[in-house]
Write a structure and sequence with these properties.
Strand order of the largest sheet: 2-3-4-1-12-13
CATH architecture of the largest domain: 3-Layer(aba) Sandwich
Largest sheet: 6 strands, mixed
CATH topology of the largest domain: Rossmann fold
Number of domains: 4
Number of helices: 8
Distance between the termini: 104 Å
Number of strands: 16
Shape: elongated
Strand content: 15-25%
CATH class of the largest domain: Alpha Beta
């Protein structure tokens, strides 16, 4: 016991003199754990006991102890950046070769999002009125970013636990770039179930961000913009409904439905039959059945009409 006390005293002297910097590890680390949904952040905090809840600027945080870590759990609220509507073609600059005018590259330009306080949807940065509900009250995500940056500067490690798909990977990448100047120790956690076992397994096996998935999401978002923002106004004009949208998925699916409908209409026809008692029912029959009924005289039978 005396030898341990002497050793601790020697360590304190070395630390005070600056000779022991980096030689001794902290007994407990502080870690900032960022997920997408506020509900998910609250659930994870409660999985490990009753968390300490704090309102930190624009964020709600949940503090709990997991193994050797003080975990501060909070949520980004989804995407924090999106393509700007003020730059290039729907947020994408098209760079051309000066000599031959051939397209050299595409450069997406991103901006901080703002959200409608009434319906919760994200809107373009230049919008003065929400296109979905008409509200004029907005909240910029910039406030949440500043809060995350301040939290990141006060912890030993930042863990980004957004959804394990390409969209979640893009959100993780954006957060990584925004927080990197304030904390160099940033890792990615992927979990497929919000359980004690799933969270602990993810925290024990931290990874790096998959840049291939990020690139796939960037291209996917550009396709959404180029297709959807070009075709959606056509739908609004034709159907007089400004909430309809066309996009990367909706447009080809709509075309598929129309094509299959046309094919089906070539093969079948609907025949409405009414009895003299006033009973009506519809019969689906191969195309040309109605003409055959006329040719054979069935439609002239008393009590039936087609």
């Amino acid at each position: 016991m005396i030898r341990k006390i002497d050793l601790d005293r020697e360590r304190v002297r070395m630390i005070r003199s600056g000779k022991a910097i980096g030689e001794f590890k902290d007994l407990i680390k502080t870690r900032l754990f960022i997920v997408e949904s506020p509900n998910k952040a609250r659930t994870i905090g409660r999985i490990f006991g009753r968390p300490v809840q704090r309102a930190f600027m624009d964020l709600q945080t949940y503090e709990t102890v997991i193994e050797d870590s003080l975990l501060i759990i909070t949520a980004s609220g989804g995407h924090v950046l999106d393509l700007s509507m003020r730059e290039g073609l729907f947020g994408v600059l098209i760079e051309k070769d000066v000599s031959n005018e051939n397209i050299k590259s595409f450069v997406p330009v991103y901006t901080v999002l703002k959200k409608c306080m009434n319906c919760g949807r994200t809107v373009p940065e230049e919008a003065v009125k929400c296109p979905y509900c008409g509200s004029t009250v907005f909240r910029s995500v910039k406030n949440s970013i500043n809060a995350l940056r301040l939290l990141a500067s006060q912890v030993d490690e930042v863990i980004i636990g957004t959804d394990p798909d390409s969209e979640g990977e893009k959100i993780a990448w954006d957060l990584y770039l925004l927080l990197k100047p304030f904390n160099k120790n940033i890792k990615r956690a992927r979990f497929h179930e919000v359980t004690r076992k799933g969270i602990l397994e993810a925290l024990r096996n931290l990874e790096d961000i998959n840049e291939d998935m990020v690139k796939a999401q960037i291209v996917r978002r550009i396709e959404d913009r180029w297709i959807g923002y070009s075709l959606s106004p056509v739908l609004w004009r034709e159907f007089n409904k400004n909430y309809l949208s066309a996009g990367r998925v909706q447009t080809p699916v709509l075309g598929f439905v129309v094509e299959r409908s046309r094919e089906a209409s070539k093969k079948i026809e609907l025949i409405t039959i009414e009895t003299e008692d006033g009973l009506k029912f519809i019969v689906k029959a191969p195309r040309g059945t109605y003409n055959k009924l006329i040719e054979r005289g069935y439609v002239e039978v008393k009590g039936f009409s087609c």
